[in-house]
Amino acid sequence: MVSPTIARLWARQAPELKDIPGYAEHFMPHGRAPEAGERFVAPAHARTLKRIAETKGEAFYRGDLAEKMAAHSRKHGGAMTVEDLAAHTLDWVEPLAHDYRGYTLHEIPPNGQGIAAQMALGILENFDVAGLPPDSADSLHLQIEAMKLAFADAYEYVSDGDTMRVKSADLLDKEYLRSRARLIDMKKAKAPQHGVPGRGGTVYLTAADESGMMVSYIQSNYQGFGSGIVVDGISLQNRGYGFVLRPDHPNVVAPRKRPFHTIIPGFVTRDGRPVMSFGVMGGSMQAQGHAQVMIRLADHHQNPQAAADAPRWRVDQGLNVNVEQGVTAAVIDDLQRRGHRMIQADRWSTDFGRAQLIFKMEDGYFAASERRTDGQAVGF
């Protein structure tokens, strides 16, 4: 059954994707997007998943499914080939770890944006965030300015790990982040430039079992339906959107290269022991959501459900900041006087991420799923 939130988002995208090859055939039964409560079946997708399982992925990268995608690409003027799919590799990486107020936030390293959440927290370590009321103008201003500084660096330096011109360790260096923190003016919003560090449509799922094993997992086609192109039940992504076209930029589009990536599963430990597996779906909101959840956990000692449900802010371009309706008018007015261009979102906005969290306790788990999405916390 199609849920209310998914039905609303589906209907919003269908008009612009209906003419993309394969989209209407697979995602617009009866010539329209399915409505809330309507049963939706995807037999081609089911057959494809079964084929992938039967061949342990070989059909997708080197077999009949790869041939179909490459043929579809040729037919419609695309550039993807069977050689491209066969050359795809997976990496087993060491997560970046950054300490914040006794907790350690682990993030997938670049080409992902998780480092931006860690940098923002590293900047905020230089301030008494716990001494400020959680949703006050001072607290939000401080968090917003730290996030903007982190993004300024992330958008300048983060790319495929093989093409990074600075080390992740340099971006997370405490002295460097302290120098970035000094740029924050508590009375004035800024549109910061990147610094110079020292040189040397998304689905999130978290699960935990009785043995203490916890998994943080995220997958995304990007921008809802990705490219909108569907081949034999396979909905193709549009993650190339994350590249830039500036020739001297480390993230410039190029062959055999991964773009700047927004999807970042999060994990928190304390003294080397697992504390929380979590994620916040939603493009550039993910790093911002990770930072905001960590602030509420570490500085304000809120439980996962309270941290997920609390009103959020979202930094966009320049001085533009979107906020949810839970932020009071007095706080919005105060932030506007400091130079922020405040935009209050409508009640049904999905631009502030959708979090799922599992917190490990001495006698079990605390699972949380927030109000902004159709997710669910289930124990069995």
Any overview of this molecule?
The chain has 380 residues and is of the alpha+beta class. It folds into 2 domains: 4-90, no CATH class; 96-201 and 262-369, Serum Albumin, Chain A, Domain 1. Helix content is 33%, strand content 18%. It is built from 13 helices and 13 strands. Helix 7 (114-124) crosses helix 11 (285-298). It starts with a helix and ends in an 11-residue tail after the last strand. The model has no long low-confidence stretch (mean pLDDT 90).
Helix content: 25-40%
The total of beta strands comes to 13
Adjacency order of strands in the biggest sheet: 1-2-7-8-12-13
CATH architecture designation of the largest domain: Orthogonal Bundle
What integer is the average pLDDT? 90
Taking Cα atoms only, what radius of gyration do you get, to the nearest Å?
A: 22 Å
Total number of helices = 13
Structural category = alpha+beta
Domain tally: 2
Cα(first) to Cα(last) distance is 22 Å
The biggest sheet, with number of strands, parallel, antiparallel or mixed sense and barrel status, is:
6 strands, antiparallel
Summarize the structure.
With about 375 residues, this protein is of the alpha+beta class. It contains 13 helices and 13 strands.
SSE layout and pairings?
Blueprint: H1 4-17, H2 23-27, H3 43-54, H4 58-61, H5 64-75, H6 82-86, E1 96-100, E2 103-107, H7 114-124, H8 137-157, H9 168-171, H10 174-181, E3 202-208, E4 214-220, E5 230-231, E6 234-235, E7 266-270, E8 273-281, H11 285-298, H12 304-309, E9 313-315, E10 320-323, H13 329-337, E11 341-344, E12 354-361, E13 364-369
Helix pairs in contact: 7-8, 7-10, 7-11, 8-13
